[in-house]
Amino acid sequence: MATITPFNINAMQSAMVESARILIDEMTNRTNNGRYPSTLPESMYADAPRNMGNNKYGITVHISHSAAPAYEFGSGLHGPKGEKYPIVPKQASALNIPFSRWPDFVFPVKPGKRMIGYNESGEGVLLRSVEHPGIVARPFVIPSIQARKQDLAKLIKRNFIASIGSGKRERIKIEVKI
Question: Which residue range is the domain that position 167 belongs to?
């Protein structure tokens, strides 16, 4: 970190917004391939740049999709705990699993400990719970950062150089954390 001469903070905030957009675009491109939930890209957004005090400014990129950590780091047997995890119904009395969802799975022939029965259409099974094995990690955040890190650094540097000597002046310190 170095003390910098006065410059236009608006130009740097613009660079932060553009950097966040570039990162979100990269993550969106990586997740629009059918191997991720279709709603994952729309859960990505950035806050407005903010003054964090002590002459530091920042911007946060959020991914609000509840499954994002599972895709980034793995889950269940493939995650940090290395264990299956239960899935239970939240609003109904049973999980309604269509046979087409798991074409290779052999469902029980008759109700038992976990199986309640078949759904009304006969095209699926009603279960009290399932032990999910989890998913293998398919990182998209870290690879996106790695792929665009140099581009983002160049963008911030270019905007900083262009901003020196114009607009509202403040004495601040620049620190880029990616």
Answer: 2-71+136-174
How far apart CA 62 and CA 78 sit, in angstroms, is 24
- 66 and 152 share a domain? yes
Do 142 and 120 belong to one domain? no
Give the predicted TM-score (pTM) of the model. 0.72
Q: What is the rounded distance in angstroms from the CA atom of residue 158 to the CA atom of residue 11? A: 10
Q: How far apart are the two ends of the chain, measured CA to CA in Å?
A: 14
What is the spatial distance between Cα 178 and Cα 58, in angstroms, rounded to a whole number? Answer: 11
**Do the domain assignments include residue 79?**
no
Q: Using an 8 Å Cβ cutoff, are 77 and 136 in contact?
A: no
Three-class DSSP labels, the chain: CEECCCEEHHHHHHHHHHHHHHHHHHHHHHHCCCCCCCCCHHHEEECCCEEEECCEEECCEEECCCCHHHHHHCCHHHCCCCCCEEECCCCCCCEEEEHHHCCCCCCCCCCCCCEEEECCCCCEEEECCEEECCCCCCCCHHHHHHHHHHHHHHHHHHHHHHHECCCCEECCEECCCC
Cβ atoms of 76 and 140 closer than 8 Å: no
pLDDT in tens, 49-83: 988 887 778 899 999 999 999 999 999 999 888 99
